[in-house]
Structure formats: C-alpha cells, structure tokens
Design goal:
By secondary structure, the chain is mainly beta. It has strands at 2-7, 10-13, 18-26, 32-39, 46-51, 58-60, 68-73, 78-83, 92-100, 112-113, 117-122. The strands form 2 sheets. Strands 2, 4, 5, 6, 9, 10 and 11 form a 7-stranded mixed beta sheet that branches. A 4-stranded antiparallel beta sheet has the order 1-3-8-7, with no helix packed on it.
Length: 123
C-alpha cells in the first residue's frame, strides 16, 4: 500500500505561481512512477505531468508544457508540481498518483491516488 497526501493548493491570481507537494508513505516510493492529474467541475480527469521512478524522465500535457515542472525527492518520498504563469483554465482539483515502475498518461493505469488539492486561479 502507498498513501499519498497532496498539499499546496489555494487561490491565486492569473499569472501567479503555486507549488503542489505530494507526500508518500508506505511501500518503496522510489519504485513508483508518479503522475499529476487534474479534474475541473463537469470535466473528466486529465493528465498533467508524470515523472519516472528515477526522476530522469518527465512528460507534460501540451496545455502546461513550459509553465509546469514536475520533480521528486526520493529521500523525502515527495513529488512536486511547480506551477507558474497560472491561467483561469488551470482551475481544478489536482491529484497525485503512483504507478509501479513505469508511468502512464492514463489515469486508469495508476495504482494509488491522493485525496486531491483544490487550485483556483482568478482572472
């Protein structure tokens, strides 16, 4: 079992920044690829970013490329999502997720999920 707890969400003006954190406990964090997903009201959950278990490979949705950065600290069992130049369309509940060994763009492939943290970007 892996338990994931997100933090760092909040209300920010357009153009601002937030850093989300996802703290993991339980089984070996460094064996899991980690992903960030988001879900806006009335919309399906969508892929945002993922990072390989080693941290050497990262992938982003086109909508956030160049603005968001995913990183991880395996010593702290934590994954981060640095979000810059935020836009109102980034408003959503953000979830982190863990998948054994390799990452995926599909939310259905992930084994463990956090409870989510709300990000609201005002115009």
């Amino acid at each position: 079992q892996v338990q994931l707890v997100e933090s760092g969400g909040g209300l920010v003006q357009a153009g601002g920044s937030l850093r989300l954190s996802c703290a993991a406990s339980g089984r070996t964090f460094s064996s899991y690829a980690m992903g960030w997903f988001r879900q806006a009201p009335g919309k399906e959950r969508e892929f945002v970013a993922l990072i390989s278990w080693r941290g050497s490979d990262t992938y982003y949705a086109d909508s956030v490329k160049g603005r968001f950065t995913i990183s991880r600290d395996n010593a702290k069992s934590t994954v981060y999502l640095q979000m810059n130049s935020l836009k109102p369309e980034d408003t959503a509940v953000y979830y982190c997720a863990a998948r054994w060994n390799s990452g995926s763009y599909s939310s259905y492939d992930y084994d463990y999920w956090g409870q989510g943290t709300q990000v609201t970007v005002s115009s």
